[in-house]
Amino acid sequence: MCGLRDVLQLMKLMQSHTLLHCQKIYLLILIQLWELQSKVIIMKHNKLFEYAVLFIICGITYYLLEVLARGHSYFSMLVVGGLAGVLIGGLNNTIYNWSTPLILQQFVSMLIITSLELISGLILNTWLNLGIWDYSNQWGNIAGQICPKFMVLWFFVSLIGIFIDDFVRWKFFDEDKPHYKLF
Q: Domain range for residue 22?
């Protein structure tokens, strides 16, 4: 038997482990969430639970992407990635429909991620002085926390978040099967 508490404990373990261990823990989390699927069907109208699942999956996915790209990450990035996933997913479920071009969804998602990066950067790097990232040597940066180069990256990374959100809502919460319009 598993529950969200077990998933959260596994998420905490990821912070101090290597990439290989993180991948194994990620798979364990996905397996536990899949086992929760039978319970989810009963709770499919519980939006708080739905957003909690999306937060966990998107947060862990972003954390692992950062470990792959940088060789390490911080627990706070799991939180920022989860929040970005929930906000992007919220747009998918409230404002967008299947006829909304994927490119437009990515553009708005890029703006959301960049805004979160600025806010979290000002809190984590400037106010708390954690030094998680510093773009001050990048062209067009604002306070060393955001820059155009990474905005372009977020445009492409947001596609992963959009696909995850749609897939999770389809498989776990019995919503529409994803289909997309590029332009």
A: 4-173
Instruction: Enter the tokens of residue 54.
Output: 């999306």
Residue 69 CA to residue 160 CA, distance in Å, equals 15
Per-residue confidence (pLDDT) for residue 23, from 0 to 100: 63
In a domain, 39, yes or no: yes
> DSSP readout, 5-35?
HHHHHHHHHHTTS-HHHHHHHHHHHHHHHHH
- For residue 104, being part of any structural domain is answered with yes
Tell me whether residue 182 is in a domain.
no
CA–CA distance, 169 with 41 (Å, rounded to integer): 11
Q: Identify the weakest region by mean pLDDT among 17-21, 104-108, 115-119, 122-126.
A: 17-21
Is there a domain that residue 179 lies in? no
DSSP 8-state code for residue 48: H
Any idea which residue has 């409230």 for tokens?
Answer: 94
In the numeric block, the tokens 């290989």 are attached to 20
98, 99, 22: which is closest to 59 by C-alpha?
22
If one counts the domains in the chain, the total is: 1
Residue 95: pLDDT band (50, 70, 90) is confident
C-alpha pair distances (Å), 32 with each of 3, 12, 51, 56: 7, 15, 16, 12
**In whole angstroms, what is the distance from residue 132 CA to residue 174 CA?**
38
